[in-house]
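User: Can you write out an input/output pair for a complex, sequences first and structure second?

Assistant: Here is one pair. Inputs:
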Amino acid sequence: MATETPFTHIDPDTGIAIPEVDVPSQKLPPGEWLRKNLFNNWYNSLITVLLTIGVAYVSWRVLRFVFVTAKWEPVRENLTLINIGTYPRDEQWRVVAQVLIWSGAAGLGIGAAVAGAKFRALQAGMEYVVDPALAKVKRYSGLLLLGLVFLGFTKTFGPLILTVVSLAVAYALYWVASRVAGHNVGLLWAGVAALMVFGFQIVSGFFGMGWLWMGVPIAAAVYSVIGRNETIEPRRLRLIQIGAALGVLVVLFVVYLVVDSVGVEWDEWEGFHLNLLAAAIAIALSFPLGLLLALGRRSSFPALRIMSTTYIEIIRGVPLISLLLMAQFFIGFFLDTRTPLSLFTRATAAMTLFTAAYVAEIVRGGLQAVPKGQTEAGNSVGMAPWSVTRLIVLPQALRAVIPAMVGQFISLFKDTSLLLIIGKIEILGAREIIHGQEAYRGFGIAETLVFAAFAFWAVSFTMSRESQRLERKLGVGER
Amino acid sequence: MTSNENNNAQAFADATQIAGTGELMIELEGVDKFFGDFQALKDIDMRVGKQEVIVVIGPSGSGKSTMIRCINRLEKHDRGRITVDGIELSDDIRNIQEIRKETGMVFQQFNLFPHLTVMDNITLGPRQVRNLPKKEAEDLAMDLLKRVQIPEQARKFPGQLSGGQQQRVAIARSLAMNPKVMLFDEPTSALDPEMIKEVLDVMKELAQSGMTMIVVTHEMGFAREVADRVVFMADGEIVEVGTPEHFFMSPTEDRTKLFLSQIL
């Protein structure tokens, strides 16, 4: 065994060292390969032939449908309806602004990841290697395809201009972020969070408690900047950090009290936009809730443990659709028939509560996978139990369960189509409006359905690819 | 204890006698430990003096590791008293943490935190527990890394280091808490032969600097060279205690003789 394991580089996204692996590459000439793998005996040859015929037939039928027989007019004529439903048309600029802002957030986020990886590679004395461009294209092929189809269907230049401008914004922010010095990466991430929330605010308008949403990432940024002080004692530093963050929230609360509400009610979000927003919010909220439930289930306080376990087991025992129907009717009866909560809020809450139970079980699996020696090592230096969990066990547990967690979130995203059943006009609901139109009554029903499925697939596939990449990268060089 | 007793090897036959400076550091009185029905420790009495180096040897399953894991409460003893530097171990978590702050521990499997750099592995304790500012903690960590001779590895992750380097980082991590006692639980058993020496060298330097140490090990050369007293355990009991000369040259107990004949 060598004294130093040869590590070649640090993964740009995860910051984990990748060991050098010698895989003997054995490339056969095509003829040889075919003979060896597909025609090595009579029954394999038979299976190969039959499967080829089957695949060819299905491909031919699919391609013929997509390019020849399908009537795409219902989709082509109703792209706006599919995307945002009946969202007020004179407020459409909000959606455009949101797309631009979130593109910026994506660019900034990727740049922050790159800057962080460069910094860690530099510190560990390793070479930083860039992902090949082709790998990125492959990873985002789902979204790229969806974008191309949209651009192919549209009859105006609007979407094309929007695409070009948002790509330009994303690239510009990526360029800036990837050149930021490593120890400022925390700030970049706070910026990403602020942009995400800002985009969310634009599309909903500045009404309600929206200002306070904005405050969270800003407060986080202030917290992280103060945390960089290297000379103040940690305990005092934490008090200053918390004080400053709370201060930010208080200031914004005052602004919220003073500024008038303007914008679009949450219940007016519709179309595929609604699917994306509902999923994004439910994902963002179910993760911390699930984390707390998982910790609660492992807690040494019996009350906390029993409550968490009961919650998890009850929620996992009922179908999501029943929770959504309860959100639609039951909560109304329960609180007040004129409940102040919008249907969107209630439905998203139901999806959040549902997913949190599953996230909790996934996280619990991760917690159990962290070796006992890690806790013992933390204990042996005198760290408090909560610090050991927070700083030693949780980071390792969460890394281990990223793939399972992303799987759960993909499932949540697809389940947003159930909003149709409680009367929300998400993408499938928009489809019903289309076929209610005089021109498309009973016309192109399969086509609109295929298109909606394709839109779901494009996003889910991208999420799944990202998770596979993380799984691959996280599986190595860790221990 | 008088000085002429000190020169007499037989004086150490009782585990409650101490060497070192003569001041008491660790005391175990009548300690029992059960795992279910299995009794892992049977009425253990031991006293360790300040700056004393105790090497504990014995066959596997004899309770060596369990004994030192009881001292910093990684295992809870069922009967008896354990006192470290005047603090008696109780169920109070603050009391336990006080003792853990004063006792560093080095594990067989290193147990470094794989998601943190070497630097962060070492500074985590001082920053969280001793409340040191980041800058001060990092200066301290660099000094310790120099002491264990791997300052150039500070920004690497544990997975990038060899076993010997990892164990030296683990020692530095314990020392960063400025402990009064160091417990070593078979620190070289998971290492490849060529890396054992570099870890033992660090431990020797530590012993010479006056650290109070209890070392569970199978390294007889280390025991002979560094130990003030050698403790032989079998079946959860302390069978024999003595200076290395007494222990290796003229052991009195049959079980000790049998064990030594098997390994030497």
